[in-house]
Design brief:
The structure holds two protein chains of two kinds.
Chain A lengths: L6 H11 L5 H20 L4 E8 L2 E8 L1 H20 L6 H19 L3 H20 L4 H32 L14 H13 L8 H5 L5 H22 L4 H20 L3 H22 L2 H32 L15 H15 L5 H15 L3 H27 L13 H19 L1 H5 L13 H20 L10 E2 L3 H56 L3 H15 L4 H22 L1
Antiparallel strand pairs in A: 1-2
Helix pairs in contact in A: 1-2, 1-4, 2-3, 3-4, 3-9, 3-12, 3-16, 4-5, 4-9, 5-6, 5-9, 6-7, 7-9, 9-11, 9-12, 10-11, 10-15, 11-12, 11-14, 11-15, 12-13, 12-14, 12-16, 13-15, 13-16, 14-15, 14-16, 15-18
Chain B lengths: L1 H11 L1 H21 L8 H4 L3 H25 E2 L6
Classes of the chains: A mainly alpha, B mainly alpha.
Chain lengths: 586, 82
C-alpha cells in the first residue's frame, strides 16, 4: 500500500464522533474504531511517511519499521480488547479519553522526531489522567492530580533535554544515541523517558495512580504509558549500561512491594514496575537478542497484564473492593473470572505453554548469553516473586483461602468475552511463539522450548509453590498501605502548604502593611510627577500624535456600527482577502 | 458449574493432592540431574538442581525480608496520608 494512514487518526476521529451515537450504534462504533486500526496496521508497509518541514525542523509522523510495527500491532490489538472490556461504560468521556490515549500512544511510536514525540507524549498524560478521574472518588481525584504533576515534571525533563539536544546538534531527529556521545541533553531525555517507564526512583506515580483508576481505565493504562516508554528507550538508548542495572533493580523492587501489598490492583501495579524492569534491562543489555526480548516481552506483557487487571477489575466491579484482606472463596461465585485470572497469572510467571515463558526467557537468556550472571540471577529471583505474589498470593487469598461474606456474580458478558479472548491470545503465543517472533525487529534464533530452559523454569516455579504453602500464614494480607517514593512529594506538598500558611501568609500581610504605609504615598507622588511630565514634556515633543489618534478613532467608530451582519461581512471580506493573498503568493 | 465441583473434589482430597505434588517435585529434580551438562559455560549450569535450591532459598528470603521490612517501617495504617 503506497498510501499510509496514521492509525491514530481512527482513534482521534472516533473520539470526536462518539458522542453523536446512542445505544447499539455507539457500541458498534466503539468496537469498529480499534478494528479499523488493526486492519490499517496489517496493511502497513515499512517506510517513512508524513514528513513535513516546520520551523526549521523536519517533522516525521510516520516512521514505520519493524520496531515501531511490533508495538503498533500490540497497541491496536489491546485497543480492541480494552474496548470490549469497557463496552458497558456509560460515560462518553471515558471512551473518548481512552481513544485519545491510545491514539497518542500510536502517534508517539510512529514519531520520527522529538517534537512530534513530545506533543503525543503530553497528550498521553493529559488524556490518561481522565481514566483516573472518572472513578469520581476523592482519592482518585487526588491521585490523578499527583499523576499529572509527576508526568508534567517528566515532560519538562524531556523538553529541556530536547532543547539542549537541538542546541547541541541542530537536529530534532529521534534516533539511536551512542552511550559514548551522551551528555547532559541526552541524559535529560533519558530521564524523561525513564519516568514514564517507571524506572525507580521515578516510579511512584504508577502504583499510586493505577489502583485508583476506573475498572476499565486501569486496563488501558497498564498497557500504553510504560510500553511507549520502553519503545522510545529501545529506539534511542539501546546498550546504556545504566538501564541494564536499573532495569534489573526494578524487577526485584516491584515484586518486593507486590509481596507485601494488600490491594489486588496495587499488587499488579507494582508488578508492572517489575515486568517493565525486564524490558528496560533488555534494552540496557542492548544485544539483538536482548532487544528482541524486550519487544517480545512488551507484546506478551501488555496482553497478560491487561488480563490480570481485567480480572482484578471484575472483582472490584462485582464485590466493591479489591482488598485481599476482605476477599476470599470467590472461586465458587466467579469461577470464570478465576480461570481467566489464573491464565494471566501463569502467563506472567512464565509457565510453559503460556506467553511469559517465550518472552521473558529471551531477556534472561540474553543476560546469560552475555555472561551477566548477576543480572540473570536477580531476574530469576524476580520471577520467583512474580509467581509468589501475582500467581499464588492473590489467587489464593482472593479466590480460595478463608470464606468471606461476599457472594458476587460473574461480571457482565462483555468483560468475560474480553478476558476470554485475551486468555486465548496468551495461550496461543505460548504454544506458537513464532507467531510473535516473526514480528520482532531482528531475526530470532532463540528456541524457548529446550530441555534446560524447561527444567530451569519448572524448578523455580514449583519450589516457589512449595515454599508458599509452607509459609502461607506469613503472607496473610494486612489492612496496611506501604510507604514508597511518593512520600517525598506527598510530604513535600504538605511542607509546602505549611510554609505557605505559616510563613508566606505572614510575610504577605507584613509586606501589605509596609506597602500601604510607605509604598502608596510614594506611588502617589510618583504618579503626580509623571503626569506632569507627560502633559508638559511628551506632548510637547511628539506634537500632534494624540490628535491623530483621536481622528483615527473617529473613522473606526464609523466602521463599528454595532450591526452583526456588517461585522460578518467585514470578516468574510478579510478572510477572502487573506485566502487571495495566500493563493497568489503560492 | 463443573469447574467448581472439580475444585471442591480436589479440596476434599487434599492429602492425595499433596502426595502427587511431592512426587512431581522429586521427579523434577531427577529430571534435572539427568540433563546433559556438556556445553555448560558457567558454574550455575553445572550444579545439579541449582534452580531448585535457588527457588527454595530465594522464595524464603523474599518472604522473610519483604514482610520483615514491611513490619519494621514500611507498613502504615490506611489513613496515613489522610
Amino acid at each position: 500500500m503506497d498510501r499510509w494512514i496514521h492509525p491514530a487518526i481512527f482513534f482521534f476521529i472516533g473520539a470526536l464522533i462518539l458522542p453523536f451515537f446512542r445505544g447499539k450504534a455507539k457500541k458498534f462504533v466503539i468496537l469498529l474504531i480499534p478494528a479499523l486500526s488493526i486492519i490499517d496496521v496489517a496493511l502497513m508497509m515499512e517506510g517513512v511517511y508524513g514528513s513535513y518541514s516546520f520551523l526549521n525542523a523536519n517533522i516525521v509522523f510516520g516512521r514505520v519499521d519493524r520496531l515501531s510495527l511490533v508495538f503498533a500491532w500490540v497497541f491496536t490489538i489491546m485497543g480492541f480488547l480494552g474496548a470490549i472490556y469497557a463496552l458497558h461504560v456509560e460515560e462518553d468521556g471515558h471512551h473518548m479519553a481512552a481513544y485519545f490515549y491510545i491514539g497518542a500512544s500510536l502517534g508517539a511510536i510512529f514519531a520520527g522526531d522529538y517534537l512530534t514525540l513530545f506533543v503525543f507524549w503530553e497528550i498521553m498524560a493529559f488524556s490518561s489522567v481522565f481514566l483516573v478521574w472518572y472513578r469520581k472518588e476523592q482519592k482518585s481525584i487526588a491521585a490523578g492530580y499527583r499523576y499529572l504533576l509527576v508526568h508534567v515534571f517528566g515532560g519538562l525533563l524531556f523538553f529541556t533535554g530536547m532543547m539542549l539536544y537541538y542546541y547541541k546538534t541542530g537536529s530534532m531527529v529521534f534516533d539511536k544515541i551512542l552511550p559514548a556521545n551522551a551528555g547532559v541533553a541526552e541524559y535529560l531525555i533519558l530521564a524523561g523517558f525513564a519516568l514514564n517507564a517507571a524506572v525507580i526512583p521515578l516510579h511512584a506515580w504508577l502504583p499510586d495512580a493505577y489502583p485508583e483508576a476506573t475498572v476499565a481505565g486501569a486496563v488501558f493504562m497498564c498497557a500504553f504509558t510504560t510500553k511507549t516508554a520502553v519503545y522510545v528507550l529501545a529506539r534511542g538508548f539501546p546498550g546504556f549500561e545504566i538501564l541494564a542495572i536499573m532495569g534489573t533493580a526494578m524487577t526485584v523492587y516491584g515484586v518486593f512491594y507486590a509481596v507485601i501489598e494488600n490491594d489486588m490492583r496495587r499488587v499488579l501495579a507494582y508488578h508492572i514496575v517489575s515486568q517493565v524492569g525486564y524490558m528496560v534491562a533488555g534494552v540496557g543489555i542492548g544485544t539483538e537478542m536482548a532487544l528482541n526480548g524486550a519487544c517480545a516481552h512488551a507484546f506478551a506483557h501488555i496482553l497478560y497484564k491487561a488480563l490480570l487487571f481485567m480480572g482484578a477489575g471484575s472483582v472490584l466491579y462485582m464485590v466493591g473492593t479489591a482488598k485481599l484482606s476482605k476477599l476470599g472463596g470467590l472461586y465458587k461465585y466467579m469461577p470464570l473470572t478465576m480461570i481467566f485470572y489464573v491464565v494471566g497469572a501463569i502467563s506472567i510467571s512464565g509457565f510453559p505453554l503460556f506467553s511469559g515463558f517465550v518472552s521473558k526467557s529471551m531477556i534472561v537468556a540474553a543476560a546469560h548469553h552475555e555472561g551477566r550472571l548477576w543480572l540473570m540471577g536477580l531476574m530469576n529471583l524476580a520471577g520467583i516473586g512474580t509467581f509468589l505474589s501475582v500467581g499464588l498470593k492473590v489467587t489464593y487469598f482472593a479466590f480460595f483461602g478463608k470464606e468471606s461474606a461476599v457472594q458476587p456474580k460473574e461480571p457482565p458478558k462483555n468483560m468475560l468475552w474480553s478476558m476470554g479472548l485475551t486468555s486465548a491470545l496468551c495461550f496461543i503465543i505460548g504454544v506458537y511463539p513464532n507467531m510473535l517472533y516473526v514480528l520482532l525487529p531482528f531475526p530470532v534464533e532463540y528456541q524457548p522450548y529446550n530441555l534446560h530452559h524447561l527444567s530451569e523454569m519448572l524448578q523455580i516455579l514449583s519450589f516457589t509453590g512449595l515454599v508458599f504453602f509452607l509459609l502461607v500464614k506469613k503472607l496473610a494480607p494486612e489492612d496496611k498501605i506501604n510507604l514508597d517514593m511518593d512520600i517525598f512529594y506527598r510530604a513535600g506538598a504538605w511542607v509546602f502548604m505549611k510554609i505557605d500558611e505559616k510563613v508566606i501568609a505572614v510575610l504577605d500581610s507584613l509586606w501589605g502593611e509596609a506597602y500601604r504605609a510607605v509604598g502608596l504615598s510614594l506611588l502617589f507622588k510618583n504618579a503626580r510627577l509623571s503626569y506632569g511630565f507627560d502633559r508638559k514634556v511628551i506632548d510637547g515633543v511628539v506634537d500632534g500624535s494624540a490628535t491623530a489618534v483621536k481622528m483615527v478613532g473617529f473613522v473606526i467608530r464609523k466602521l463599528q456600527t454595532g450591526r452583526v451582519q456588517a461585522y460578518i461581512g467585514l470578516a468574510l471580506f478579510m478572510f477572502f482577502l487573506i485566502v487571495w493573498i495566500l493563493l497568489v503568493r503560492i | 458449574m463443573k469447574i467448581v465441583n472439580y475444585i471442591e473434589f480436589l479440596r476434599r482430597n487434599m492429602k492425595g493432592l499433596v502426595r502427587v505434588l511431592i512426587v512431581y517435585l522429586i521427579a523434577l529434580v531427577i529430571f534435572d540431574v539427568t540433563l546433559s551438562r556438556h556445553d555448560a559455560h558457567y558454574m550455575i549450569d553445572k550444579i545439579y538442581a541449582f534452580w531448585t535450591i535457588f527457588g527454595i532459598v530465594g522464595c524464603f528470603i523474599l518472604i522473610k525480608v519483604a514482610k520483615g521490612i514491611a513490619h519494621l517501617f514500611l507498613g502504615k495504617d490506611e489513613d496515613f496520608y489522610g
